[in-house]
Amino acid sequence: MDHKTVEDYILEMPNSVREYPFGEKVAVYKVNDKMFALIAEGSDPVRLSVKCDPQLAVILREKYETVMPGYHLNKKHWNTIVLSGQLPWEEIQGFIVHSYNLVIES
């Protein structure tokens, strides 16, 4: 999975924008001025952080070794996913949509 594919999908979410509030090493994707995804620039494999329901976050971390507590984020509400091929693209897309929906519904 490459950065451009993931970023293109994220930016397809209605009203989503990319910003660099933490410097050029982390792309931050927002909707309604709230973060819903982050990608570490230049990471290989891609490291994607997304917001997640706290109970689901724990289940995903237990189920997949490539899903970890959010790196430099609130570990209760964020997961960082290493896109190494363990998870199918459709599942990653679902995590992105879940994160987006959590933010727009809050």
Q: What's the short version?
A:
By secondary structure, the chain is of the alpha+beta class.
Describe the structure.
There is one protein chain. With 106 residues, this protein is α+β, with helices and mostly antiparallel strands. It has one domain (3-105): Aspartate Aminotransferase, domain 1. Helix content is 34%, strand content 27%. A 6-stranded antiparallel β-sheet has the order 1-2-3-4-6-5. The longest helix has 17 residues, at 89-105. It is globular. The mean pLDDT is 96.
Poorly predicted tracts of residues: none
Largest β sheet strand count, sense and barrel closure: 6 strands, antiparallel
Estimate the strand proportion.
25-35%
Shape descriptor reads globular
**Class computed from helices, strands and strand pairing:** alpha+beta
Counting DSSP H or I runs of 4 or more residues, the number of helices is 3
**Helix-strand topology string:** HEEEEHEEH
Distance between the termini: 30 Å
Widest β-sheet, arrangement of strands = 1-2-3-4-6-5
- What is the strand tally? 6
Helix fraction by DSSP (H/I, runs of at least 4): 25-40%
Radius of gyration, rounded?
Answer: 12 Å
The CATH class designation is Alpha Beta
Q: Name the CATH architecture.
A: Alpha-Beta Complex
The overall pLDDT average reads 96
CATH topology: Aspartate Aminotransferase, domain 1
- Number of domain units: 1
